Predict the structure of Methylmalonyl-CoA epimerase.
Amino acid sequence: MITGLDHIAVAVPDLEKAVKRFLEDFGLTYEGTEDVESAKTSTAFFPLPPTSIELVHPLNGEGPIAKYLEKKGGGLHHLCFRTDDIHADVARLKEKGYQFLADAPSPGAHDCLVIFIHPKSCDGVLIELSQPPAGH
Ligand SMILES: CC[C@H](C(=O)O)C(=O)SCCNC(=O)CCNC(=O)[C@H](O)C(C)(C)COP(=O)(O)OP(=O)(O)OC[C@H]1O[C@@H](n2cnc3c(N)ncnc32)[C@H](O)[C@@H]1OP(=O)(O)O
Ligand SMILES: [Co+2]
């Protein structure tokens, strides 16, 4: 079951500059950066309860964010729903015809299990589902 809006992600061409903006200009709390090798993405999180802002930037200049930045320069990249049972939600949504970008969830930031739904399945919005590790 989907239980909340885990984060809203913004793709940024200059991570350091964007971190400074969200920290100093907007005054948000900076949790730190985390490189997610499997997603070829560097992330920076700013908790803003009950959700967070995630900045995403290409890790080593490669991956999906690099392609996005090439085309758009930056912008709102995805919404992430928190789920308490990612496998059940994937099965339920596949049954309804949603196209997933992987066969199975994989590790994301914060040791969560994540999977993405193609934007074409959701009126042009890229959706991530994320299940926190047990006990979180
Ligand atoms: C997992 C770590 C971390 C976390 O929270 O834990 C992250 O969130 S990492 C985030 C980075 N990872 C991903 O984005 C994985 C999912 N994304 C992809 O697999 C690709 O980006 C994909 C399939 C959405 C697009 O890749 P493709 O190679 O098909 O790129 P195109 O440029 O050809 O795009 C095709 C089509 O999709 C539109 N598009 C692309 N990105 C987005 C987006 N973020 N939001 C909305 N639409 C998007 C693009 O404009 C093209 O549309 P078209 O009408 O055909 O021009
Ligand atoms: Co995300």
